[in-house]
């Protein structure tokens, strides 16, 4: 695959290093994604020079090697590869590579020994060892009381290594540049062979999705005790607590341990109240917002694709953790006589949906539907684990919630929300989120499901799938995040529900539209429903994972 590093960063499985080109300036940066997307990621701006003068260069990138070559002389180039998770290697041939550090006040670089410089990066709590294995390297980094004024590193005609670590550097032997390239090529090919099948029509999307999922994984470090798939290494380099479920779904068949690790990240970070964090990275856990309980749904799907997930101790861990999540919604998100509520649009994952424009808190039918579906799944899990009394309790809770849902949030026109301390009925009904009760289509009367599906087809279906806001709505917004664009996880939930509960023809049609959408918009965070253009972050893992899951079901 020819990789465009403006859209998809160059990286590899397990590494926090990546290289990308800025969208606005076209500047190329070596970056590091420790600390999540609130931390600075830029390490060095990269340029090619001859005789000290900047030269125009072009880029040839594949999944495993990145080459920068002079426009006026393509035989003169520099290459980058990442043969080990914490090692970025640079080879220069006929050009001088200049690295200018994106430093702040206390960042410091000093000479460690001949041909080696140690760089302390304070905001990231990270250290780099920059080593010359062969060739010429010069450093200009004038000291000024508490740090360097600037850092300018030049590398030419040789092999150089940037290695990251948190505390102490441990000397080692480095592989040759060629051997490193061959190693990464083998690792990536193994991933592709295990995760994808050839498809003449969708091969470009398969290649892109395979690379994004592989290259977005980071190794255990800090708070992360297992390998973790970031949502992206472009802009949104965190692990969010419903995104990760869709990533786990895709890799569950062939990489069950890695899949389970994605869920374990949040079970291990579960608060004593029962809630999962909104997101996690190697340095930070945030509980500011929550997400609907989708873990049990994902786990039930995983049990269908690999017996690994049926193992009793594993199932028990998910079961007990999910019980705590449900207790959280019962104790802390439910006013007496009402349904569980959201306190912010971000709680739902549909951040700026029109459902939330009237204020907070909001009783929303999607949340209740997720809870009902989870209670029904817990009933099944309880039966498998021999917890018959608890199974009865979960069924009772699901039945009660369902009755209250139909009483409080449904009328002859469909589902709606309620807002505020007085639980006022929300008049706005133009968001796709209000149609997510399809998740419990097995409980809804056929007339209600028919009405839901007709509504989806008539008011939300576009050239590429279901828009998240009615295109006819005055609140619809081009590139409006959840006010129109198509999103992968929501598409997956609708396809799965439609196909599972008697509306297979519509489900298949939406699936085909989504697969075709990726040929136009790539693996972006979301998409324009009419043009198919990829929007916001153009290198997103849950988009890639949903695509690969759906194409495997063809």
From TrEMBL:
Keywords: Glycosidase, Hydrolase. The keyword Hydrolase applies. Belongs to the glycosyl hydrolase 63 family. Residues 237-543 form the Mannosylglycerate hydrolase MGH1-like glycoside hydrolase domain. The keyword Hydrolase applies. This is Glycogen debranching enzyme. Signal peptide: none annotated. It comes from the Bacteria.
């Amino acid at each position: 695959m020819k990789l465009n590093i403006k859209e998809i960063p160059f990286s590899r499985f397990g590494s926090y290093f990546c290289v990308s080109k800025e969208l606005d300036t076209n500047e190329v940066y070596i970056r590091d994604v420790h600390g999540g997307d609130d931390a600075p990621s830029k390490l060095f701006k990269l340029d090619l020079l001859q005789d000290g003068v900047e030269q125009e260069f072009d880029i040839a990138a594949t999944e495993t090697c990145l080459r920068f070559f002079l426009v006026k002389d393509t035989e003169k180039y520099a290459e980058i590869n990442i043969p080990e998770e914490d090692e970025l290697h640079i080879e220069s041939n006929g050009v001088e590579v200049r690295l200018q550090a994106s430093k702040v006040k206390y960042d410091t670089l000093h000479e460690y020994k001949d041909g080696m410089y140690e760089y302390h990066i304070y905001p990231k709590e990270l250290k780099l060892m920059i080593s010359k294995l062969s060739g010429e390297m010069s450093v200009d980094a004038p000291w000024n009381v508490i740090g360097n004024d600037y850092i300018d590193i030049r590398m030419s005609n040789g092999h150089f290594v940037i290695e990251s670590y948190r505390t102490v550097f441990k000397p080692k032997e480095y592989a040759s540049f060629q051997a490193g390239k061959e190693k990464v090529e083998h690792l990536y090919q193994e991933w592709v062979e295990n995760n994808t099948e050839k498809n003449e029509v969708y091969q470009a999307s398969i290649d892109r999705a395979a690379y994004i999922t592989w290259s977005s994984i980071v190794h255990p470090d800090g708070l992360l005790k297992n390998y973790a798939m970031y949502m992206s290494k472009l802009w949104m380099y965190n692990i969010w607590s419903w995104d990760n479920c869709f990533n786990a779904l895709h890799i569950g068949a062939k990489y069950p341990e890695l899949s389970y690790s994605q869920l374990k990240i949040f079970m291990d970070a579960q608060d004593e109240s029962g809630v999962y964090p909104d997101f996690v990275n190697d340095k930070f856990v945030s509980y500011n917002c929550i997400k609907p309980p989708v873990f049990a749904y994902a786990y039930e799907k995983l049990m269908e694709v690999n017996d690994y997930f049926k193992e009793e101790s594993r199932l028990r861990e998910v079961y007990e953790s999910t019980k705590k999540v449900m207790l959280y919604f019962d104790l802390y998100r439910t006013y007496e006589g009402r349904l569980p509520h959201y306190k912010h649009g971000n709680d739902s994952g549909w951040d700026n949906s029109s459902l939330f424009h009237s204020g907070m808190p909001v009783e929303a039918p999607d949340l209740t539907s997720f809870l009902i579906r989870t209670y029904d799944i817990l009933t099944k899990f309880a039966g498998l684990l021999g917890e018959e009394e608890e199974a009865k309790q979960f069924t009772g809770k699901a039945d009660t919630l369902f009755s209250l849902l139909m009483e409080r949030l449904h009328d002859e026109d469909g589902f709606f929300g309620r807002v505020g301390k007085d639980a006022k009925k929300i008049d706005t009904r133009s968001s796709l989120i209000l149609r997510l009760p399809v998740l419990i289509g097995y409980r809804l009367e056929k007339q209600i499901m028919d009405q839901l599906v007709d509504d989806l087809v008539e008011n939300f279906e576009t050239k590429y799938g279901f828009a998240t806001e009615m295109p006819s709505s005055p609140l619809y917004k081009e590139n409006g995040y959840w006010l129109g664009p198509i999103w992968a996880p929501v598409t997956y939930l609708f396809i799965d529900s439609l196909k599972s509960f008697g509306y297979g023809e519509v489900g298949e049609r939406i699936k085909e539209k989504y697969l075709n959408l990726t040929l136009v918009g790539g693996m972006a965070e979301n998409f324009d429903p009419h043009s198919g253009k990829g929007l916001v972050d153009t290198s997103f893992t849950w988009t890639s994972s949903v695509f690969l899951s759906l194409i495997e079901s063809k």
